[in-house]
UniProtKB/TrEMBL annotation:
UniProt lineage: Eukaryota, Viridiplantae, Streptophyta, Embryophyta, Tracheophyta
Pathway annotation: Carbohydrate degradation; glycolysis; D-glyceraldehyde 3-phosphate and glycerone phosphate from D-glucose: step 2/4
HAMAP family, A to Z: G6P_isomerase
Protein name as it appears in the record: Glucose-6-phosphate isomerase
Entry's family note: Belongs to the GPI family.
UniProt keyword list: Cytoplasm, Gluconeogenesis, Glycolysis, Isomerase
Any one GO MF annotation of this record: glucose-6-phosphate isomerase activity
Length: 565
């Protein structure tokens, strides 16, 4: 298939850049009709993209690009279970994970929804037993604490949802007396941190790994298996360890009873797996299944919106196309994700994986080298914290399109006596102010009128014309968290569909892993047989030799809980 960059709509958009660059955002924003056309409202989620460097004509041209890329057909192919992940020969059906019980979604001629619900029912039953104390540990005690071991897609999504739910009153109530922790890094410090304050007698370990081969996760799983069996005896593993995986054979080999394993399927990409048992099991153990079911329903409502809405009203499609405009035409490779909600502090780290692992590709889906850069650099922090950190660069340095995410109703409202606005209004004042500061900037003229010293004028000038978009959510309950997740998942798919890449494989993570295997072998040979470092370049040989020499006297043992300070 021809590259998208060879199509006429791509060329038209290239030519259109000069037109857009002639008009400053402050002028674009003075056209109310234009701004009105750049608002989309869906189930109380409001998207305002009027601060994009775009005219209605730009959006029209982007829709033509979408047509040239066969966007609608590609979305349909995803939903109908075609093997659109062609390098792994797999369907891409995370939408099936949150489909209603009576939905029909086929993969390889089979409706996958009943299997999805079998696992969801099993999670509901198991999590209720653990939560109500009818499933107990080896010493007969209720398991009130959960450590979920996993990395990448088996970690970041569940952590984001957990962090977001922690301020929801319903979720707080249902999690009372329980703890959920995430162990991801193979760094023994992470093990020590996670077992600090936990008693193996009351702890359930959930090993989460799609492949059940990921080196970090398996080492952490072995370490916690040892932590449990050295305290409670090897037979305790059956009561204290369960697994989530697509590879049930390896789960059993590891020593976890397959009855205590929660399956998912190869048509779920790791970074799209938070709605499978990967997220649903640990989150249901913490909050109860009914809370997590609302999260799934929220994601599902966006799945339907994405599938059925015309592009002009389709939030993920619009967001995806605007990203393409910023990255491929205006030449802004990065995007800042700025939630004005501390509960969303783990949203940007999750989206980093979903976006950068999906779209950071150098060839088209047919293997043709791309003559343009695909993917974008995502980063972010909650506001207002970020304002006191990297916003200087965003305001006066590089142009970085920003996503401002705000929440209408705070889950934890505070109104101090004597204050003019509530704490939440204070937060939101910044959410509303920052996009205009970026868009309008401040001119030398304005500064002169304010009698600013001439030598400071260049330093205090803001060029403005810096694009952003704003999403306003009604509240941050489980349902809306599901929606937010699905909006971004689909936005990223849209970008990949337009660029014509495979957003659902991740070969780029393999090379580093295989080189680490070589290093691991060397470390082992040097430590056990005293072998010299060999077969590496000068730099790595020097560094490895220094590491081996300087760490030869460090005693190795099971990590212990960190001391209380
Ligand atoms: O779930 P697992 O099989 O353990 O994989 C965990 C993670 O590791 C891999 O390296 C991939 O980059 C990720 O996409 C994946 O989510």
């Amino acid at each position: 298939m021809a590259l998208i960059s060879d199509t006429q709509p791509w060329k038209d958009l290239k030519a259109h850049v000069d037109d857009i660059n002639k008009t400053h955002l402050r002028d674009l924003l003075s056209d109310d009709k234009r701004c009105q056309s750049m608002l989309v409202d869906f189930e109380d989620i409001l998207l305002d993209y009027s601060r994009q460097q775009a005219a209605p004509e730009t959006i029209h041209k982007l829709f033509q690009l979408a047509e040239a890329a066969s966007l609608k057909e590609k979305i349909n192919r995803m939903y109908s279970g075609e093997h659109i992940n062609s390098t792994e020969n797999r369907s891409v059906l995370h939408v099936a994970l949150r489909a209603s019980r009576d939905a029909v979604i086929q993969s390889d001629g089979k409706n996958v929804v009943p299997e999805v619900w079998n696992v969801l029912d099993k999670i509901q039953e198991f999590s209720e037993r653990v939560r109500n104390g009818s499933w107990v540990g080896a010493r007969g005690k209720a398991l009130k604490d959960v450590v979920a071991i996993g990395i990448g897609g088996s970690f970041l999504g569940p952590l984001f949802v957990h962090t977001a739910l922690q301020t929801d009153p319903e979720a707080i109530e249902s999690a009372r007396g329980r703890q959920l922790r995430f162990l991801a890094n193979v760094d023994p410090i992470d093990v020590a941190r996670n077992i600090t304050g936990l008693n193996p007698e009351t702890t359930l370990v959930v090993v989460v790994s799609k492949t059940f081969t990921t080196a970090e996760t398996m080492l952490n799983a072995r370490t916690l298996r040892e932590w449990i069996s050295s305290a409670l005896g090897p037979s305790a593993v059956a009561k204290h360890m369960v697994a989530v995986s697509t590879n049930l054979t390896l789960v059993e080999k590891f020593g976890i009873d397959p009855n205590n394993a929660f399956a998912f399927w190869d048509w779920v990409g790791g970074r799209y797996s938070v709605c499978s048992a990967v997220g649903v099991l640990p989150l249901s153990l913490q909050y109860g299944f009914s809370v997590i079911e609302k999260f799934l329903r929220g994601a599902s409502s966006i799945d339907q919106h994405f599938y059925s809405q015309p592009f002009e009203k389709n939030i993920p499609v619009l967001l995806g196309l605007l990203s393409i405009w910023n990255v491929s035409f205006l030449g802004y490779p990065a995007r800042a994700i700025l939630p004005y909600s501390q509960a969303l502090e783990k949203f940007a780290p999750h989206i980093q994986q979903v976006s950068m692992e999906s779209n950071g590709k150098g060839v088209s889906i047919d293997g043709v080298p791309l003559p343009f850069e695909a993917g974008e650099i995502d980063f972010g922090e909650p506001g207002t914290n970020g304002q006191h950190s990297f916003y200087q660069l965003i305001h006066q340095g590089r142009v970085i399109p920003c996503d401002f995410i705000g929440v209408v109703k705070s889950q934890q409202p505070v109104f101090l006596k004597g204050e003019v606005v509530s704490n939440h209004d204070e937060l939101m004042s910044n959410y509303f102010a920052q996009p205009d500061a970026l868009a309008y900037g401040k001119t030398a003229d304005q500064l002169q009128k304010e009698n600013v010293s001439p030598h400071l004028i260049p330093h205090k000038t803001f060029s403005g014309n810096r694009p952003s978009l704003s999403l306003l959510l009604p509240s941050l309950n489980a349902y809306n968290i599901g929606k937010l997740l699905a909006i971004y998942e689909h936005r990223i798919a849209v970008e990949g569909f337009i660029w014509g890449i495979n957003s659902f494989d991740q070969w780029g993570v393999e090379l580093g892993k295989s080189l680490a295997t070589q290093v691991r072998k060397q470390l082992n040979a040097s430590r056990t047989k005293g072998e010299q470092v060999q077969g590496f370049n000068f730099s790595t040989t020097t560094m490895l030799t220094r590491y081996l020499q300087a760490s030869s006297d460090v005693p190795a043992d099971l990590p212990t809980a960190l001391p209380k300070i």
